[in-house]
Amino acid sequence: MSSIQGKVAVITGAASGIGKEIAFELSRAGALIAVADINLDGAQAVADGIVQAGGRAMGVAMDVTDEAAVDAGIASVVAELGAVDILVSNAGIQIVNPIENYAFADWKKMLAIHLDGAFLTTRAALPHMYRDDGHGNSRGGVVIYMGSVHSHEASKLKSAYVTAKHGLLGLARVLAKEGGSRGVRSHVVCPGFVRTPLVDQQIPEQSLELGISEEEVVKNVMLGQTVDGIFTTVEDVAKTVRFLAEFPSAALTGQSVVVSHGWYMQ
Ligand code: NAD
Question: Which domain of life is it from (predicted)?
Answer without folding.
Answer: Bacteria
